[in-house]
Amino acid sequence: MSAIAKSTKRRLIAGATAAVGTAAAITAFAVAGTANAADSAASGKWAKPTIVLEHGAFADGSSWNGVIEKLRHDGYPVIAAANPLRGPASDAAQLRTVVSHVKGPVILVGHSYGGSVITEAGADDPQVKGLVYVAAFLPEAGETALQLTNQFPGSTLPGTLDPVPYTDADGSTGTDLYIQQDKFPHQFAADVNPKDAALAAVTQRPIAQAALEEKETGPVAWAQKPSWDVVTTEDLNIPAAAQRFMAQRAGAHVTEVAASHSVAVSHPGLVADVIEKAARATR
Q1: How much is the pLDDT for 36?
Q2: How far apart are CA 271 and CA 114, in angstroms?
Q3: Which residue stretches of the chain are H helix?
């Protein structure tokens, strides 16, 4: 077995283990959400919605840590879902299983490619009350993440990517995309502490190239539900012009910040504040 194949196998096993761990935690999170709702009902207070966070490509659930800390401090139940990063349709199906285990209303939050996932997962679901996009894609039906990125100048992501072929257990093949570790800090997390950015480069989760080329299916959730959008003006992955275009088309409530693509790490308080605004507005 080649070095690349061995490395890829280890990555796939690690990803599967992480997903299993997250699935095991869902019940605990759901119980916490139920307790929150029951306590609030008993006291006559507003029952805060559960915040479900969906990370994007080249990241994992830990990228939300600072945001989670603020949300939990303010009394919100939170789930940071494990995104398989295989394609919008299958990833949305996975996210819907997470939401189905939550009692009460939900606010879906998506970073980067995670925006494509919540756009599909939140459609036609009355439990989902609002959507928050964080340096994210808000695709229309028939659009792809790659198409939306290339529609506007400014992304330097293609020149930093490291493609790694993979073969699944069923024999299907494809290509995973990583950001080269030495280029990751500048490309993805230029305003993050250098030590933390270097660590994120090592622990990044790859995305299947096919996921960025897969068309969004309709209907789209942002056409049905109120949405909020954190637009990152120093983003080298998704150009700010592309983010503004998508946010305006969706009629989203926009907050702009001079930040890198990794805004949830560099500005967790701001991101948490936007999420809480969405939660309060949809009560």
Answers
A1: 52
A2: 15
A3: 3-43, 65-73, 88-100, 114-121, 145-150, 184-188, 194-203, 209-213, 240-250, 263-266, 268-281
Angle between helices 114-121 and 88-100 in degrees, nearest 10: 60
Please, what is the Cα angle at 245 between 231 and 222, to 5 degrees? 80
Segments making up each domain of the chain, as ranges: 3-281
Name the pairing type of β-strands 50-54 and 253-257: unpaired
DSSP letter at 79?
A: E
**Which residue's structure tokens are 């990833």?**
91
Contact between 256 and 137 (Cβ < 8 Å): no
Q: What's domain 3-281's architecture?
A: 3-Layer(aba) Sandwich (3.40)
Q: Is the pLDDT of residue 17 over 50?
A: no
Q: What is the mean pLDDT of residues 18-27?
A: 40
Q: What is the C-alpha separation between 110 and 39, in angstroms, rounded? A: 28
Q: Considering only CA atoms, which of 254, 220, 262 is closest in space to residue 132?
A: 254
The predicted-structure confidence for 208-260, as pLDDT tens digits, reads as follows 999 999 999 999 999 999 999 999 999 999 999 999 999 999 999 999 999 99
Residue type for position 115 = G
Which of 35-44, 69-78, 193-202 comes out lowest in average pLDDT? 35-44
